[in-house]
Amino acid sequence: xxxxxNFIWYELMTPDPAGAARFYGAVVGWTIASERxxxxxxxxxxxIGRSDGGNAGGVLALGADMIAGGARPLWIGYLHVADxxxxxxxxxxxxxxVQMPATDLxxxxxxxxxxxxxxxxxxxxxxxxxxxxxxxxxxxxxxxAQHVRWNELATSDPEAAxxxxxxxxxxxxxxxxxxxEMGAYRFIQRGDVGIGAVMPLMPGMPASMWTYYIGVDDIDxxxxxxxxxxxxxxxxxxEIPGGEYAMNGIDPQGAAFGLVGPRK
Length: 264
Fold this sequence. Notes:
Layout: E1 7-14, H1 17-27, E2 31-32, E3 45-49, E4 55-61, H2 64-68, E5 74-80, H3 84-93, E6 97-105, E7 108-114, E8 120-126, E9 148-155, H4 158-169, E10 172-178, E11 184-190, E12 193-200, E13 209-215, H5 219-228, E14 232-239, E15 245-250, E16 256-261
Parallel strand pairs: 1-4, 5-8, 9-12, 13-16
Antiparallel strand pairs: 1-5, 2-3, 3-4, 6-7, 7-8, 9-13, 10-11, 11-12, 14-15, 15-16
């Protein structure tokens, strides 16, 4: 399977990359570069390294002008598309919005959009390095620690959101878990791979948003590291189907995240 319609990158937008490096290093085991990537030009952009030598995503430093323009600490995913401009036209025609127009970077063409319910994400037509045209992204993995393992959309209109992503990205929706008064937790698939779920907005959630669950080696060790390093736990850990555990938190700079992994 190619990367079409897959999550191919994850980005942390934060005002304090050094603080984020300390936090996620302790919680997940990542190494976030101490200096900006020269290929990013004027942007302060840093790579997130995994222990196996691969990349887990990137960190964009939020400057004062970005914050004044409304940017906030946030994890955001990139979805692969063949043609960014065509994707923007289709998304706008279907009720979505463009937050950042199509932009060419050395690594490809990108744009930031929201779905019709307001959840933001990027679309990207990547430009692989010469000689690596057939390479696929491995930032998402169903099973592996230090990768994002689950993509969860909390939305004001689950039925409409599922229709939107099905139309534009070819995902499937099969199966659900009953959450009682909170509604259904509906599983989404890319091909035969379960990539996440769509759920109604929970009380206290201000807007539709994606949450990305990062794999950890031991949920109890990670939980202790969250609190010891200035983060806040907002939910869990709770056991999930299959016997592992998931939890939600806020990092010290204010970005929401999820963790998933075994209890050892």
